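B., you asked whether I could sanity-check this one before it goes into the benchmark set. Here's the sequence:
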Amino acid sequence: MSKDCLRNEKRENIRKGVYLLPNLITAGGIFAGFYVIIAATDGNYERAAWFILLAAIFDGLDGKVARLTGTSSKFGVELDSLADVISFGVAPGVLLYLWALRPFGKLGWLAAFLYVICGALRLARFNVQVSTVESRRFIGMPIPAAACIVATCVLLFYELGGTGTIKMVSMVALVFLLAFLLVSNIKYISLKDPELFKRQPFVMLVVAIMLLIVIVAQPRIMLFLIGMAYLISGPIAHYLGWRKDKLEKKKDSAGSKQNQGEMDSESH
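And here's what the prediction gave me:
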């Protein structure tokens, strides 16, 4: 099929219309991300953080609604990817700079830009690899998770009595860490794993209810702890997998040496 035919086919698909419900949800995520920038510019950092979490909820809903209603489309996938760049890349980058990185001058805005560009690279790599990697694991930290970690840091700051901006070297270090994890090959568990929505042991329901109660009781602290737990889960799993592979290689090497020794003794 020629390129002109492909272009005509794409135009025809758009002319037929787009699915309203999932794309409206995606548009809600874009709105939330844009408002993060507005709120951060006005100095309402706590409100901006909550809207990042709202954008994450929209991001989780649009794909599920599209699959449940059979309204998935290439247009929706592209719109969702653009929404992620705005809501979880640019918006958290602006929030980070205005809330914590501006006092560091040039280093501050360069660190914020590093987060944004690494997030964009992460999304581009995901779009290329989406059909070739397992759905249960993400390669690199997903950008919504990185944005939510930024948001929970802001919320914890206000929970501990902070006001206005913060100037801490640890925030610069966190930005560089998130940027690295976004483009790394460290695998993170996918919260969109279909296995999570299948039948689970009864005790899992009890644990989930208890966790929900604790989150409602102390939302800012618990959301921060959950974010930090997810952040370190990838490197820990990566280290354990590397250690396991190393031990298996040692066993294989020892076994091959033993077999070689037995063969040499038999030959004598």
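One thing to flag: The first strand starts at residue 137 and ends at 139. Otherwise nothing jumped out at me.
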